[in-house]
Design the sequence.
């Protein structure tokens, strides 16, 4: 990879990991416009590590409290709001893990065409817009119940289909269940932690088995840039949606979907 490719891929991954706009759509569009070679599995791991570091740093205080309360709940069998949220994140990850094991091969080979991605951008973008317009909930992530966890967790499994957007579909489901915009986004970001950890672990095992040689400098730059862009994305996205909502992202998804259809039909 040349340095322009390293920089653009890192920033795009950092932003689109948490914005409800689908990282797969942007990466396939970038590959078509530039005709760059595939960046390789090692660089994918680096980018995931950067975004993981960003969400861990941003929510570090919350995660410390959640972890303490979670361990306490194992001992006392009592759930406070922090322990309940920790269990919600853990249990909400199960559906996407099961779906990945069951359908990963089909999704990677059958549904990664630009037209499927365009359809996902448009359909799930409209659903996000409807949820944001129709549902004006007030509950925070600490007020989530077990039905909410099941619904949002199953919705997250849909993000395996390219064009859906993991953050987009989980925020949509949370909004429809009566959570606030900020609460929906914060729960979606917390849910990303075990998903990214699992993805990094799977990719690392595959990388070790393949015994691929690694160029460490581009990987280090990828971790740094994806981490910084992801951190800034989380911070400004949470401030942005409280005032304006999801409609700018809905419009962006629709435009991008139409562009992909125009380019590939």
Sequence:
């Amino acid at each position: 990879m040349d340095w322009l490719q390293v920089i653009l891929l890192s920033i795009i991954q950092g932003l689109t990991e948490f914005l409800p706009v689908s990282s797969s759509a942007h990466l396939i569009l970038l590959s078509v416009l530039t005709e760059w070679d595939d960046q390789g599995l090692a660089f994918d791991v680096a980018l995931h590590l950067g975004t993981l570091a960003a969400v861990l740093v941003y929510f570090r205080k919350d995660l410390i409290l959640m972890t303490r309360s979670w361990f306490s709940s194992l001992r006392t069998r009592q759930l406070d709001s922090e322990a309940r949220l920790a269990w919600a994140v853990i249990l909400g990850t199960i559906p996407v893990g099961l779906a990945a094991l069951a359908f990963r091969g089909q999704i990677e080979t059958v549904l990664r065409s630009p037209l499927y991605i365009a359809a996902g951008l448009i359909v799930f973008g409209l659903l996000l817009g409807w949820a944001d317009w129709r549902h004006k909930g007030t509950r925070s992530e600490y007020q989530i119940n077990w039905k909410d966890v099941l619904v949002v967790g199953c919705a997250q499994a849909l993000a395996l289909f390219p064009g859906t957007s993991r953050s987009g579909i989980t925020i949509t489901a949370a909004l429809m269940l009566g959570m606030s915009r900020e609460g929906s986004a914060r729960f979606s970001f917390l849910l990303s932690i075990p998903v990214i950890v699992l993805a990094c672990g799977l990719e690392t095992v595959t990388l070790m088995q393949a015994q691929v040689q690694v160029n460490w400098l581009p990987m280090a730059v990828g971790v740094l840039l994806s981490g910084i862009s992801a951190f800034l994305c989380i911070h400004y996205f949470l401030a942005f949606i409280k005032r304006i909502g999801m409609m700018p992202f809905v419009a962006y998804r629709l435009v991008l979907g139409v562009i992909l259809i125009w380019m590939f039909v």
Q: What stands out?
A: The mean pLDDT is 88. Residues 81-110 form the longest helix (30 residues).
